[in-house]
Amino acid sequence: LTLFFFFFLFNSKFLIYACLLLFSVLLSLRLDDKIQWSYWAVFAPIWLWKLMVIVGASVGTGVWARNPQYRAEGETCVEFKAMLIAVGIHLLLLMFEVLVCDRIERGTHFWLLVFMPLFFVSPVSVAACVWGFRHDRSLELEILCSVNILQFIFIALRLDEIIRWPWLVVCVPLWILMSFLCLVVLYYIVWSVLFLRSMDVIAEQRRTHITMAVSWMTIVVPLLTFEILLVHRLDGHNSFSFIPIFVPLWLSLITLMATTFGQKGGNH
């Protein structure tokens, strides 16, 4: 049970953001030819992330199988179903990542085939979101996968040159999503200003809203900057190396890592 509670209480979001940060650093170095590693090695942080998911799910399934009393507890059943849904989504993502590495290294099949697991992830994530809202679950990954189905399709079509739009146009679904996130940032900024000017709000609430506003701003603004720089690089409008292009993304990921401290662990 000690191993079970380790995975149950483990700060999974911190691990995910740390793996993404390390992966983005390795990817930028590889794209700039600073390192000559195989892409299978560049993706090592992603493999670590998926390995932890599989190990955690195996431990959870073992504990569930060996303790029949858990099946009679409603909340525990919800936890187990949530774990199965999360593992299913992660396995589809793992399949996509393996196909990406294989396509980059060998270049023998269409990108539409590579993106096929993501096309399955999106409807599964929509169903997971419906279930998760009913059971008050954390849904960041599921929401991210479900709202980006159109973006996945556009990227696959562009990589296969079935469409020849500029990357600025290909990423229109992404710009719509980022516009929504910018509105969220604006919302927190406005409320923070109102709370600062109000004498009826306690100091702790003011600090909370200011912290949220600063956090969202430090996540969204650098992320948007990274996306704009990358799209302009792909369209040939700038000749920056990839390392400075990725710097804003690293700032966003470091901020996300900082926001995970004190949050609920693993499967919640």
From TrEMBL:
It comes from the Eukaryota. The keyword Magnesium does not apply. InterPro entries: TM_Fragile-X-F-assoc. Keywords: Membrane, Transmembrane, Transmembrane helix. The chain crosses the membrane at residues 6-27, 39-60, 80-100, 112-133, 139-159, 166-190, 210-230, 242-262. This is T185A protein. It comes from Mesembrinibis cayennensis. The gene is Tmem185a.
